[in-house]
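Schema walkthrough. Field components (list of strings):
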Amino acid sequence: MIFTRLVSVAVVLSVLLLGGTAFAAQNPVDSLGNLSAEASRQNVSLDDTAKNKVQNTCQIAQTNLKSMRQKELRVQRERSETYLDVQNEIDSLRLRIMRQGIETSGVAKALLAYREQSDQYDRLSKSYSEALNDTVSIDCRANPEAFIAGVTLIRQKRAALLETTNLLQSYVDNDVHAQFNRIKIQVKV
Amino acid sequence: MSPNETTPEQSSRDNASLYIAIAFMALIAACFVAITFTMFLRSSTYATVQAIQANSKIDGSALSDYDTTSPVKTADIDETIRGIENKMNSLNNQENYNPDDLNDSALGLER
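Field assembly_structure (string):
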């Protein structure tokens, strides 16, 4: 009797378990779902001519995007390392100057702004890579609107990356440079 | 023997059933733990934990390879500024993120 009851409970739990397993095993990256939502957000609507054109050419575009992907990842890694290295160079010099009793709050402020942009670059790179992966992995012939939304999204992310990298360059060329030039007057030769 | 008394065979069978049932439940419990762990690994909470760990690693060891103690002269400042500008200039923003790389023609969408 006790065995029958326990087995009944086990069967019920097993059903729940199978449901949970199915949920856990779902692909965490739902590329088509992401891009379909993006297509709705962008209000992408293609007439038959445009749809046909996309369906005829999108696989070539996906191949081109795939070949860009490796290079993009290498560029992102190199940039993240360089930005961190530059940040540490600035910070270590700031600490050395501070030890000599010289005010360095201007450098600290410039460094904070730089660091925020550097973090922004890392976040953007990640979302750009995700959008790129989504765009190359969907069935573009069956989902031309989602594909076009993906292409638009990666263009937007890429433009934002260019803007962020230019800002980082500008912080170093202008703000950090100006702060250290100001400090130089107070440092003994 | 009264009707309420159990035979040794029946008692032994009940015991075996109990052990099997307990093993069953333990197995199911282990599966639930595995599912919960999998869900945690996939959750944003885990991503946040990883990000925090990565940040503390950077904060803790970031400057260990850099000189933070020796006295500074103006030449050191000039040298550092030159060094970081060279590093930044080695990154070609326009080339790496050229918008034209993604236009219809470059992607092959214009055929």
